[in-house]
Amino acid sequence: MTPKGQIPTVDISAFTTGNDSSARQATAKSLAQACLNGCVGIIGHGVPAELLKQGFDIAKQLFDLPMSDKMKAPHPKGAIPHRGYSAPGMEKAYSKEDLETNDDAHRDSLRKVTDCKETYEVGSEHNPIQYNIWLPEDVLPGFRDLTTKLYWELHKTSVQFLDALIMSLGMTADEAQYVRSLHSGHGNQLRLAHYPPIPVEKLNREVLARLPAHTDWSTFTLLFQDSAGGLEFADRENEGEFLPAIPDGDKLYLNVGDMLMRLSNGRYPSATHRVTVPQSFDDSSAAGKMTPARYSIPYFVVPDDEAVVFPQPSCTTAGNPARYEKVTMVSYAEQMSKWQYEKT
To answer: Bridge-partner residues for 301, per DSSP?
Structure first.
């Protein structure tokens, strides 16, 4: 049993390295319980440690480049394609509740609080809508090859995770086939993220932010992080409280996204999460203190652009009918990204 106030951890090796049906059923049962809060720590994921190390190493090399070099692969000022490099303050995260106000004045007031992170987004080379924006090879040799390799290795892992989630929800064979068909891998997104040191007192006064509380639009997200800490998930059992996603060796954190919430008819809630001052960081005398730098690699597992997402029948009952309308990923992303970047 997971201690109160901690994120549960599940060993998923029955799906990544084994094929014993009883072990898979036991893992799926553990995953079903863990996902009720929308987030779970995962061990036994099988992603090669050396490849992850190379990913973090090249992320640091990337973000250490002069700004003039990073801006040779600029993210466009609009939301699409969501690829390339975004400088600190360019992207702003909003909650669904913020977006549902549809109030431009509210948007502008939130944007006054800068999100102090820089990111680089990578996708499939076969996505004509979300096409890649690459650095010239001589700026960071090997960057394109390594991130492409990491992208597809994580897709392979995500297929095994999707099988585990399908089993955990008890979907029928036809439903399982349909849900798998939504996820070719060409809609996924690999993000390299750097949170530079910023004054703790400005975070506490909400003059600056790292990453405000929000949910992901994905089916689910796989999150790898360094040892700095700062990622937190909302505790659904205690409103207003957050649980720290404590760095722990090669453990990754899986969070449920909006698409899996819809597919499961809300059984698995989309996880609200944020990046802030690590709970282990002593900010009792915050004056002059800086947050530690933080690096992370999230991998967003996303339905294909025109795939139709809706609650699967086995996840509905007479007392809990379908709570979500049919939606395509491209239409949902358009709605959710309307404030993400400054309008041109």
So the answer is: 220
- Determine the residue type at 33: Q
- Predicted local distance difference test score (pLDDT) of residue 279: 76
Alpha-carbon span 272 to 249, nearest angstrom: 23
Contact 263, 303 (CB under 8 A): no
Structure tokens at 266: 């809300």
Contact 155, 93 (CB under 8 A): no
Q: 191 forms bridges with which residues in the sheet?
A: 121
3-state SS, residue 18: coil
Element (H, E) at 251: none
H or E element in which residue 298 lies:
strand 294-301
Q: Is 31 helix (H, G, I), strand (E, B) or coil?
A: helix
CA 129 to chain centre: 20
First to last CA, the chain: 51
The conformational region for residue 327 under phi > 0 = left, psi -120 to 50 = alpha, else beta, is beta
Provide the H-helix boundaries in 242-323.
Answer: 258-263
Answer yes or no: are the C-beta atoms of 116 and 196 closer than 8 Å.
Answer: yes
What confidence score (pLDDT) does residue 334 get? 84
DSSP state of 271: P
Pairing label, strands 294-301, 189-195? antiparallel
Buried b (16+ CB within 10 A) or exposed e, 283-300: eeebeeeebeebbbbbbb
DSSP per position, 108-156: HHHHTSEE--EEEEE--TT-SSS---PPPTTTSTTHHHHHHHHHHHHHH
0.85 exceeded by pTM: yes
Instruction: Between 111 and 227, name the one with better pLDDT.
Output: 227
| High-pLDDT (> 90) share of the chain, % | 74
Q: What is the pLDDT of residue 344?
A: 43
Give which of 142, 254, 124 is closest to 183, Cα–Cα: 124
HSE of 344 in the Cβ direction (CA atoms, 13 Å)?
6
